[in-house]
Design a protein that fits this description.
Structural class: alpha/beta
Oligomer: single chain
Largest sheet: 7 strands, mixed
CATH class of the largest domain: Alpha Beta
CATH architecture of the largest domain: 4-Layer Sandwich
Number of domains: 2
Strand content: 5-15%
Distance between the termini: 109 Å
Order of helices and strands: HEHEHEEHEEEHEHHEHEHHH
Number of helices: 11
Number of strands: 10
Length: 333
């Protein structure tokens, strides 16, 4: 809310909040829910300040979010009267290989895709006012109840895909094909695939390849690890592709300016040159630390074996020389 106020000022901020119709929440991790309650409360206040009758905010979320709102209600304030919930169903991804479901690297079943358009409250949903023709929730590969979203605009038919937190997800690629805009998480840098797999996130190259398979026209990478305080790594393949960029705080991306954003990457490289160099050196250090270190005992054994073999070879050479000398003397005699 402070950020919104800094960008637009109190009056414009109130108008923006009053024009907010719906919030889509991907999953229940705190970095995706913090600020929700302040948003709902400030939106209610905006209606009062503008002298408008209150219109409930539509909150599209899974049932784990309802647990958080219930806890908040018991401790602070019940926001149920201010929102209209739309529950996201999810399909439990069974593991047929005996691995814990969170470690499964398989594709969710087709039932993990939900057309939310028909579930939106009819008394509040307006395709024209919301500029929303349709929206799908796609279960992605993160927590058991995490979703990405595929939006289709009402006015011009543009398609916007938001991945949420996920590993590379073939189901999202399938339903987000030919997206006009793709916002994809990119938590880890290349070379940290093991960390990404364990935490069910994507590396930059994995997100890049997923966007390529999706044939997305404009791609914004976001959700970078906190180890990249100011700027994530910017490998050459991003610049060479020509339609990729990285999201930043306070960034606004109108549709008509989308081709401009990839041109910011060289600017970021120059602006954050020291940070990028420092991160690169840390990355090289991690790679060296991950390399297997030689075992001292094995090295000593190998060295001892080499010395022994060298001694045997020398003895053999001396013996051979003595035999040749004896044969020569016998011949001369």
């Amino acid at each position: 809310m402070a950020s919104c106020g800094l960008l637009f000022g109190p009056e414009q901020c109130a108008k923006l909040l009053a024009s907010l119709h719906v919030i889509f929440i991907t999953h229940s991790h705190l970095d995706h829910t913090n600020g929700l309650f302040t948003m709902v409360q400030e939106r209610c206040r905006a209606f009062t300040e503008l002298g408008l009758p209150y219109r409930p905010l539509v909150l599209v979320c899974n049932r784990t979010i309802r647990k958080i709102t219930s806890m908040y209600a018991r401790s602070y304030q019940n926001i149920d009267r201010l929102v209209n919930y739309v529950d996201l169903p999810y399909v439990y991804i069974e593991d047929t290989a005996g691995i814990h479901p969170r470690a499964v690297n398989s594709l969710p079943s087709p039932g993990a895709v939900t057309d939310l358009t028909k579930h939106l409250p009819k008394q509040l949903f307006s395709p024209t006012a919301w500029n929303l023709r349709s929206v799908k929730a796609v279960q992605v590969l993160h927590t058991r109840a995490a979703n990405g979203f595929v939006f289709e605009c009402e006015r011009d038919g543009r398609r916007v895909v938001f991945s949420g937190d996920t590993k590379p997800c073939p189901l999202l690629e399938q339903h987000g094909r030919e997206a006009d805009v793709l916002v994809h998480e990119c938590t880890f840098e290349d070379g940290m695939e093991a960390d990404a797999l364990r935490k069910r996130h994507s590396t930059m190259r994995q997100a890049f390849d997923s966007a390529q398979r999706m044939r997305a026209k404009h791609v914004f990478f976001t959700h970078f690890s906190s180890r990249y305080a100011r700027c994530p790594p910017l490998p050459d393949y991003l610049l060479e592709a020509g339609n990729f960029t990285v999201a930043n705080d306070y960034m606004l991306a109108p549709f008509d300016l989308l081709p401009v954003f990839p041109k910011l990457l060289p600017v970021f490289r120059e602006l954050f040159r020291e940070e990028l160099f420092t991160n690169h050196m840390k990355s090289m250090k991690r790679k060296l630390e991950r390399q297997p270190q030689p075992n001292v005992a094995d090295q000593q054994h190998k060295f001892g074996h080499l010395k022994q073999q060298k001694y045997i070879n020398n003895v053999a050479a001396v013996g051979s020389s003595q035999v040749e000398t004896s044969c020569l003397k016998a011949t001369e005699g």
